[in-house]
Amino acid sequence: MTRLVLHGGDCKSGSTAIQSVLQLGSWRYSGETMLKLAYAQGGRREGLNHQRLADSLHMKKAMSYRETAWANLGKDFTESDADVMVISAERFEFAPPEAVRAALEEFVPDAMQDLRVILYVRPHAARLLSGYAQNVQQRIFKDDLPAFLEQMSTEERFIYAPRLLRWKETFGDALEIRPMVRDMLFENCVVHDFLSFCAEGTSAVPVVEKIPRENASLNPHGLELIRQMALALQKRNPAPNPQHAQIMERLGHNLERIPSFSGGGIQLPDSMRADVRAAFMADADRCDKELFGTPVMVPQLERALAKPFDPSAVPTAEEIDRLKDLSLVWLDMLGRVLQQAAAGRKQGAPGAQPGRPQIRQN
User: What integer is the mean pLDDT of 220-242?
Assistant: First the structure.
């Protein structure tokens, strides 16, 4: 009988690395046990993950394909000859666990007896910083880190215990919650840890040959440049602009490849430490007492709050302004060249070559 394993995130907790390895198949099991693991096709359409399954349980616009997506998973599971089948989507973090269980019982009833669910949870301060970086890089949030903390605190976005206790109540012993702390993971790696979890009860040992994709993050210079560029373009044209969105997306991808913009992460300023403690310490303590049964989240938060701040790693406003202005100049020049090239093609200028500006000779 195939065992179903549901990996439900959290976001910013190694999900992309896990999913990319499963999609590529860049792993194997060694040992006496020959374990066959399948990454379910149903609900992901050959894609990286099963976000369609998760989204259909909490997003109004996605609920229309709940029946189809989950039915495809049920068919995939019924026809599988694997020992273990995995579904993975970090956006299960946003779905009510009761809705997740109801969908599993409706479309994959035979999986319920041996079901396993795993959630990885990133410590509070690290989640705050990585969440801010991702939101800025994706141009979802354009303000600074203190404003992000204020918004997340208002929304209780990174208050874990109430949500995780609902998952625990819904799935009972089938649920495993692990802190996303490298030295607490098998082989200090979330991918190895997850594959080891899938092989529990056997002698199979995971060997990961390649992790093809991990979410890259920009350092403070890269993030601030992205943020200021997005604000400048929005000021030029406040209306939604698909061209600007494409430019910013391409800029972000290119900066990720440049060490001076991608090496190192953002830091927690000294001025924010009291606010971060006030926002998360009570929840960290509750997680330790009611979920982990041992000090985990509190020590991690204390360690983050005690980490020295290096002001030399933070760009000055003058540095960012120069980079922003230079980028805008190049953007304007490129726009003019493309406009001239397009005009030349439209007019059919003699000797003009499509896409190449003409050099005027006086």
Answer: 84
pLDDT > 90? residue 216: no
pLDDT interval class at 238 (50, 70, 90) = confident
DSSP SS3 for 119: strand
Closest CA to 3 of 73, 76, 84, 79: 84
Tokens of 269: 């300023």
* 30: β partners: 205
CATH of 3-122+180-208 given 3.40.50, 2.60.98, 2.30.31, 1.25.40: 3.40.50
CA 151 to CA 229: how far, in whole Å? 22
4: helix, coil or strand?
Answer: strand
Burial bucket for residue 239 (CB in 10 Å: 0-12, 13-18, 19+): exposed
CA distance 103 to 93: 15
**What secondary structure letter does DSSP report for 203?**
-
Q: Which residues have CB under 8 Å from 359's CB, separation 6+? A: none
- Which residue from 44, 84, 180, 77 is spatially nearest to 123, judged by alpha carbons? 180
Of 327 and 184, the one with more pLDDT: 184
- E strand or H helix at 271: none
Residue 119 in contact with residue 8, Cβ under 8 Å?
Answer: yes
Is the CB of residue 63 less than 8 Å from the CB of residue 227?
no
The residue ranges of every structural domain in the chain are 3-122+180-208, 220-264+317-344
User: Residues 228, 229, 233, 234: is their CA dihedral positive or negative?
Assistant: negative
Q: Determine the pLDDT at residue 360.
A: 42
* Total-model pTM: 0.85
CA 15, 16, 20 angle in degrees (round to 5)? 120
